[in-house]
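Board notes, transcribed. Complex of a protein with succinic acid.
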Amino acid sequence: MSEIIINPASGSIGAEIGGVDLSVDLSDAVFSEIRQTFIEHGLIFFRNQELTPDDHLRFAKRWGEININRFFAKVEGHEQIAEVKKDTDQEINIGGAWHTDHSYDQIPAMGSILLARETPKTGGDTLFANMYRAYESLSDGLKGTLESMNACHSSRHVFGAHTGYAEASNQRIGNPELATQDAIHPVIITHPESKRKALYVNPEFTVNFEGWTKEESKPLLNYLTEHSTRSENITRFKWEPGSIAFWDNRCTWHFALNDYPGEKRLMHRITVEGSALC
Ligand code: SIN
């Protein structure tokens, strides 16, 4: 019998898992309980984890292949771990807008496991939105319209050349020549494991609905953002060194708050491969 403690978070999304040490190789029974919690809540948190980069990778590999982000700086000696860092003299942070990771890929990463290494004295929390609930709380009319639509997601305007992101992030972001992919995904997806429907557009990477111009798409995308980020749909995670958030990109958005000027924040992120969305 495992000693795992599961405390649901606010905003109908996420659960904090206690009573587990991720620095050891987890038994199949414990891993299966964690996995079930992840599928059920779409987002899991752990605290006080003392993990080496190899421990972090071992845990990530229990979930699938590692998907290496081609734009983020890497942790030295660990090509598969992205360094999400804000220096004391850096103005913009990474992830400071609502998004879901890698939606610009044909096969977006399934999830991201973010581990806090250094956190500011106050601030630097991350917000998460529940995209199952975003879908479920739409009117039947709008649900019906969106069901038949696809949307185009792109990396070009974020990670491409001349966006200013690399300079503003102290070169924490690179390889602009690799920002060439656009991907078409359904606007409403069925989560491959929970089988629940979720709204799958996001304000950072979704550029237009298929067959619509960007100008035509903008008002509806703006409405969906406003709808999805209502307070009852959001949970907020406060980090300490050793905290972990593992989110499911298929049913959540996240937003890293940039409210700690002059302080450093250092996180390690591993993204796990996903599957085609439908
Ligand atoms: C990210 O968008 O992956 C970063 C989130 C965070 O740093 O809180």
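The mean pLDDT is 94. Helices lie at 28-41, 53-61, 131-136, 140-147, 156-159, 165-168, 214-228.
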